[in-house]
Write a structure and sequence with these properties.
heterodimer; A: alpha/beta; about 20% helix; about 35% strand; B: alpha/beta; seven-stranded parallel β-sheet; 29 strands; about 40% helix
Chain lengths: ~220, ~800
């Protein structure tokens, strides 16, 4: 179990690309991109389905393993709502019905903005551009200027860390990236790629390697 | 022409009026045409192949001129390069005019204006010069069949350029359709010399009866004997100072300039676009007074600037053009009297073709001057000359049963009026490429292209609609639009247009290169030093930079692997060197390097496989030299790494070149034990190759091309629509989703098959293993990397194969921090 302390709060890094704040029973995830393959198929691009159900199952497992009472999505819950398939809508509906007591919060991301908020029945508390749940400031995109108070948590970048090793090994793995005032979560959705980040000395990077969190702090 | 002179006599008269006499093969071709034959004419460039094909149909017309006005489409002329269309049309027009034939002649390519498209929508000219892609677009029209109803002749020009690729398959599919529509039409191919002309002919003409597999018969006409070609090399003055590796080296710049200065007009061929940019800049820096007389030509430059260069070249206004394979083909550039090949030509056919770009005046010999960029290219130049003199030209192996191209074709035909599976299956089977296609594979492809087939994995997906009568059609305008835009099998990197802040477009750079640019960065492109301003609307906006210091863009692809023919010719050169015979100037020049190789290690004989072992601060290196050519070596490297990694958890990074490969590991590599345990055995070969495919990235990489051709991803076009942005995913990601949720997908299997058969060339790989096993294995511990090993040491592109867990590997790695990343 990898925990870190940020502004005196203890956060647990989960290899399923989620961040758990045990004191408030809050789970942070970012960049879920639900229904992404559905929008591909709608556009006549043959990509098999399966990732949406898998991602919901991962979320269920996290909620039951940890005593999660609130899930905060740091943007890009949906990939493109206009093309969300009936089956994906139904899948999330069923999932929601099984977790009625769960508090759901969405910080609207660029994909959410373009495609519209999730159906009311899903019961998301939607915010834009961000909210403060002290000591954290929650955004989708990393803020342009360093926050004056608190610590920013966000997504959007789908961060991937570039690792180098002996014998000229190299690889890029999804990661959590904690800068002095801003932390970026890896993308939760499984049909998403990574974007290169440029960490500097003093940043803490935690990569996800085959279900294990490994620290480069 | 209302006189009674026969068509053939008029053709002879046309020749006489120019002071020419027809070659025997030209007469042979004209007679063959009038006898209703199809076939393939092969000869070197600039020896009258065009007239051999073209005058046959004109002679037939002259014998029975049907109308005094322009007839509907009689002849289709397919050229692989759209830049060639206009020049080809001009050379076809000349006899039409001279012989007073009232045909209209036009071109149709991706560059055609909307006026031309509009006119051709109503009526096609009597003869049309077009590309395989534009031809396929005609098949996507509902009125395709009526357009071609009078067609008498289909010419595939430069067939050698198409046959080994999926563009060749696309052409074969179009031919299968045209043969059905116009059974009387003759098909003629024109090709440079190939090592497998019989296969080239069969692929061109297709199958007469797919049930018996009976091939269509045709004539193979040998054109005029190639002119004498002389291959010379520029020799480095001091071989001790000459590099052992790299391909961008400018060590011989002054000597190259001297060769250019001696002639009237020189073509300087390079193997990559980056190399062309560098040489162009270097020549101008050294000879500033040549400004305006030196030009640059490669595939990523704006079409207008390329056309300008071609025109100036023809008119003799240029002293020198630095180019890539973009000028391998094409009409004669008469003023060119000197050809320089920078770096190794990597293939005998390519060297012949490039040499043939000079000396077109009768009786003048073609000459090519090789300018090696490192020591071993001297050996390759000598080897290429020997292989050329003994006529060992490479074959081009046609692609077979490519389901990605078939999938694209199905949508094309569905657009062009639709198809029933029965009917189209028969038609497709008459092409050489699909002569052995099973009904099951065909049905799977139809199902997958239509709606994902019977699989539950593709809800709400459909591209083709099945009508009540059982015909498959396209009834979605969005599908039709995207398909028309993406017809073709040329898969290029996502690229960005390069444009001045105010003004002209310059060409294209790869998106992956653009992504690394920061505002203010300087890079060399189109022969200028540019300052990057920003990216917007799929365009990299730039301004002219003042400084001279700049990086050079890298384009994906480019560079050629050494052909098998040339690889074995290189081994023959080394055998001669071992025997102390240094017979060519190149081998004499490279002798000190080979002596050093022999002193530190040994020169591998052709019946010997050399393995060198050494340790540096990078780790433990094993170098193995099977001389299999880059593709085979890549397969062998993955195979050896996989077999070695089974012994204990270990991670390798692999570098490959044409001569051999390097396995590098932080841990010691137990090479002797592995050899004893059967490192090179052919037992369990298939299983082990498949395991190495899964371990490495090869199949995933090959899937990129397949996904794009089969229409699984939308190619983004510079200046294209933004709305497609939400439909972007890397093909690697798509490969992973397929593996997980539709593992039986035949396109995945095709990716593996293509890696096995085309990339790794399993049959060549088996031959190489047999050769290794039949010969001697020599393992030598060397104090430092030898001349042979050095090029592998500096190779930066590396693949990884590991039997360690990811966590174990990560535990030993470091994060690349900002400074290190920026230096990448």
């Amino acid at each position: 179990m990898t925990t870190i302390t940020i502004v005196d709060e203890t956060l647990t890094l989960l290899p399923d690309a989620a961040l758990y704040w045990a004191r408030t029973h809050t789970l942070f995830i970012a960049d879920v991109h639900l229904g992404k393959t559905d929008s591909f198929r709608r556009a006549a691009l043959a990509v098999p389905s399966g990732t949406t159900l898998k991602d919901l199952a991962r979320l269920t497992r996290l909620i039951t393993t940890y005593d999660v009472r609130r899930v905060i999505v740091l943007g890009d819950l949906l990939h493109a709502y206009g093309s969300l398939s009936q089956s994906a809508l139904a899948a999330f509906g069923t999932w929601r019905a099984a977790h009625v007591d769960l508090e759901l919060v969405l910080i609207r991301g660029n994909h959410d903005r373009a495609t519209g908020d999730p159906p009311k029945s899903w019961g998301f508390d939607v915010h834009h551009p961000g909210i403060v749940i002290a000591p954290f400031v929650l955004h989708h995109e990393p803020p342009r200027s360093v926050p004056t108070a608190g610590y920013a948590l966000c997504g959007h970048l789908h961060p991937g860390a570039h690792l180098i090793g002996q014998g000229r090994q190299q690889m890029v793995l999804p990661c959590f990236w904690f800068q002095p005032k801003v932390g970026v979560l890896p993308a939760f959705g499984s049909f998403t790629g990574t974007g290169g980040i440029r960490p500097t000395e003093g940043d803490a990077v935690y990569v996800i390697a085959d279900g294990i969190i490994m620290s480069f702090a | 022409m209302s006189n009674n002179v026969s068509g053939l006599d008029q053709i002879e008269g046309y020749f006489a009026s120019r002071g020419w006499a027809p070659f025997a093969f030209q007469r042979e071709a004209w007679h063959a045409y009038s006898a209703g034959e199809s076939g393939l004419i092969h000869a070197a460039t600039g020896t009258g192949k065009t007239l051999a094909v073209w005058l046959g149909i004109l002679s037939a017309w002259l014998d029975a001129p049907g109308t005094v006005t322009a007839p509907p489409l009689q002849a289709l002329w397919i050229t692989p390069l759209r830049a060639l269309a206009a020049d080809t049309a001009a050379s076809l027009q000349e006899p039409l005019t001279a012989l007073n034939i009232p045909w209209t002649l036009e071109t149709r390519t991706g560059d055609s204006s909307s006026t031309v498209r509009g006119r051709q929508r109503k009526r096609l000219p009597s003869a049309l010069v077009t590309t395989p892609e534009s031809l396929t677009l005609f098949l996507a029209r509902a009125d395709g069949q009526t357009l071609f109803s009078d067609l008498k002749l289909i010419v595939i020009d430069e067939w050698h350029e198409l046959i080994g690729s999926k563009r060749g398959v696309q052409t074969e599919l179009a031919l299968a359709r045209l043969r059905r529509w116009c059974p009387e039409a003759r098909v003629w191919g024109v090709s440079a010399t190939l090592g497998n002309l019989d296969v080239a002919l069969r692929a061109l003409l297709g199958i007469a009866d797919f049930e018996t597999g009976e091939i269509r018969r045709g004539l193979l006409i040998q054109g005029h004997e190639p002119k004498a070609i002389r291959v010379e090399s520029i020799l480095p003055r001091r071989i001790e100072r000459f590099p052992w590796a790299g391909h961008l080296g400018l060590a011989l710049l002054d000597e190259v300039i001297a060769v250019i200065a001696r002639g009237r007009t020189a073509l300087v061929f390079t193997n990559t676009r980056a190399q062309a940019e560098i040489w162009y800049q270097a020549i101008l820096d050294r000879q500033p007074d040549w400004a305006g007389e030196v030009a640059l030509h490669h595939g990523s430059l704006d079409a207008d600037s390329r056309r300008w260069v071609e025109a100036a070249l023809k008119e003799g206004r240029l002293r020198c053009v630095v180019c890539t394979s973009s000028l391998d083909l094409g009409v004669d550039f008469a003023p060119v009297d000197s050809v320089i090949q920078v770096g190794s030509p990597k293939g005998v056919g390519r060297l012949l073709q490039r040499a043939g770009r000079s000396g077109h005046q009768p009786g003048i010999e073609s000459k090519v001057t090789c300018a090696p960029t490192h020591a071993f290219e001297l050996i390759e130049a000598a080897a290429a000359r020997d292989a050329m003199l003994s006529g060992r030209v490479e074959p081009r192996i046609p692609v077979e049963n490519a389901l990605d191209v078939l999938s694209q074709h199905l949508v094309t035909i569905a657009l062009g009026g639709g198809f029933t599976p029965d009917d189209l299956y028969r038609e497709v089977r008459t092409s050489y490429a699909y002569r052995s296609l099973t009904r099951a594979a065909f049905e799977w492809t139809v199902g997958f292209a239509a709606d994902g087939g019977a699989l539950a994995a593709y809800p709400e997906y459909h591209r083709l609609t099945r009508t009540d009568e059982g015909r498959y059609i396209v009834d979605r305008p969005d599908v039709a639009r995207v398909h028309r835009m993406s017809i073709g099998t040329i898969v290029s990197e996502a690229s960005l247009k390069v444009q001045f802040m105010k003004g002209a477009a310059l060409g294209h750079i790869d998106e992956s290169f653009a992504a690394r640019l920061q505002p203010g960065d300087k890079f060399t492109f189109a022969g200028r030093v540019l300052e990057f301003v920003r990216v917007r609307d799929m365009t990299a906006w730039v301004r002219l930079a003042r400084s001279k210091r700049a990086i050079v863009p890298r384009w994906f692809g480019g560079g050629f692997p050494l052909s098998a023919e040339l690889a074995s010719a290189v081994r023959a050169q080394l055998d001669a060197a071992i025997a102390g015979r240094y017979e060519s100037p190149e081998m004499v020049a490279v002798k000190p390097i080979l002596d050093l190789q022999a002193k530190w290690s040994r020169i591998p004989a052709s019946d010997e496989t050399l393995i060198e072992r050494t340790t540096t601060r990078d780790g433990n290196h094993i170098f193995i030299f099977p001389f299999g050519g880059k593709l085979v070596n890549e397969g062998l490297a993955a195979l050896c790494a996989t077999r070695l990694s089974r012994r204990s958890p270990i991670t390798f990074t692999i570098a490959v070149n044409d001569y051999g490969f390097e396995l590098l590991s932080p841990d010691p590599i137990p090479i002797h034990e592995a050899i004893d345990a059967g490192l090179f055995t052919t037992a369990n070969l298939t299983e082990d190759i498949l395991a190495s495919l899964n371990a490495g990235e090869l199949a995933r990489r090959q899937f990129r091309e397949i996904a794009r051709i089969a229409g699984l991803v939308i190619q983004r076009f510079p200046g294209g629509q933004k709305s497609a942005k939400q439909l972007q995913a890397s093909t690697g990601l798509i490969y992973d989703v397929f593996e997980q949720y539709d593992p039986g997908n035949l396109l995945l299997l095709q990716a593996r098959y293509e890696v096995l058969e085309r990339q790794l060339e399993v049959s060549r790989l088996v031959n190489t293993l047999d050769r290794i096993n039949a010969g001697r294995l020599t393992v030598i511990d060397v104090p430092r990397p030898t001349p042979l090993a050095f090029p592998l040491i500096v190779e930066r592109i590396r693949e990884t194969i590991s039997s360690e867990t990811l966590a174990d590997r990560v535990a030993k790695m470091q994060l690349a921090l900002e400074r290190a990343t920026a230096a990448l």
